[in-house]
Amino acid sequence: MAEPVVDISELTRSFGTKTALSSVSLSIARGTVHGLVGANGAGKTTLIKHILGLLRAESGSVRIFGLDPVTHPVGVLSRIGYLSEENDIPGWMRIDELMRYSRAFYPAWDDRYAAELQQAFTLDPATKVLNLSKGQKARAGLLIGLAHRPELLVLDEPSSGLDPIVRRDILGAVLRTIADEGRTVLFSSHLLEEVEQVADHVTMIRQGKIMLSAPLATIKASHYSLSVRFAESQRAPQLVAGVLRWDGTGVEWTAVCRDDTDGVRSAIAGWGAHIVGERASTLDEIFVAHVGTSATPPPDA
Ligand code: ATP
Predict the structure, then answer these.
(1) What is the pTM of this model?
(2) Are residues 94 and 186 in the same domain?
(3) CATH of the domain at 174
(4) First to last CA, the chain
(5) Ligand 1 center to 235 CA (angstroms)
């Protein structure tokens, strides 16, 4: 087996009395797109900061390309492209200045590729960053993160505030290309639909703990949703083995189930209820079933 690009073992981190990460172990294979999903405050950014060497492991270990990012910052960071949630690129710079400024940090900066990205992202070189829309600013951030052809691209909530077209066209295409070239992507998100479209592997995190981490295909294949009609109104159907969660009211309920559902089916039949529909669970349903809450904050949050 090739050495994983990211290899985190038993990482724990607290801020005062708050445990932000608790015994987190995570391995990310080269050439994969890895989606890190969690609600606000779950610990995603804290984990990413450890990967970038911006925080030192309190206990446990972090190895990126086999190196400790705290003691080998240059060796690690020169091989990483990073786009933060805040996307804090200097507003006074023009796009062409930003490209010249950024290339100085990266020996592997590829001028031709940078120019290609600038055209593909329709970024006018003469425009100042502060005059860019949020979507254009995100494209500029991606350009900077990508133009040195990083082995590992780390995106912290790359889509927050972006319209769906920018998300689908830019993010989807870029992430797929990177993985196809044998490079690796880690991106955090609370948009499960987006994760479902681009990730190869998904890690769900809640309150600093990993609840589920597996290839997307495995997760999808091992969960399904049953629509159940009861003879009488239910307050909360029984959580028999195999059912992770019930959602519904009255006589109409949906069970999110894991693995073999034979036991669930016979329990349902035993209650005199009927299965009226069966389908693959969405990643959103699976997340809620494992984590207990939705990853997406309410609109006014
Ligand atoms: P979001 O989606 O809101 O960005 P997140 O999953 O990235 O959330 P983190 O930013 O990693 O979550 O925060 C995890 C927990 O650690 C939160 O409870 C947060 O308040 C706390 N935390 C993070 N950084 C600090 C800090 N520097 N000082 C104190 N508490 C912190």
Answers:
(1) 0.89
(2) yes
(3) 3.40.50.300
(4) 43
(5) 36
Cα separation, 213 vs 138, in Å, equals: 28
Asked whether 55 lines ligand 1 (CB < 6 A), one says: no
d(CA 276, CA 11): 44
Confidence of residue 301 (pLDDT cuts 50, 70, 90): very low
Residue 127's φ and ψ, nearest 5 degrees, are -85, 135
DSSP labels for 193-251? HHHHHH-SEEEEEETTEEEEEEEHHHHHHTEEEEEEE-SS--SS----TTEEEEEEETT
Residue 13 CA to ligand 1 center (angstroms) comes to 11
Any atom of ligand 1 within 6 Å of the Cβ of 44: yes
pLDDT digits (tens, 9 = 90+) for 272-295: 999 999 999 999 999 999 988 766
Q: What is the pLDDT of residues 87-103, one digit of tens each?
A: 677 889 999 999 999 89
Q: Is residue 10 part of a domain?
A: yes
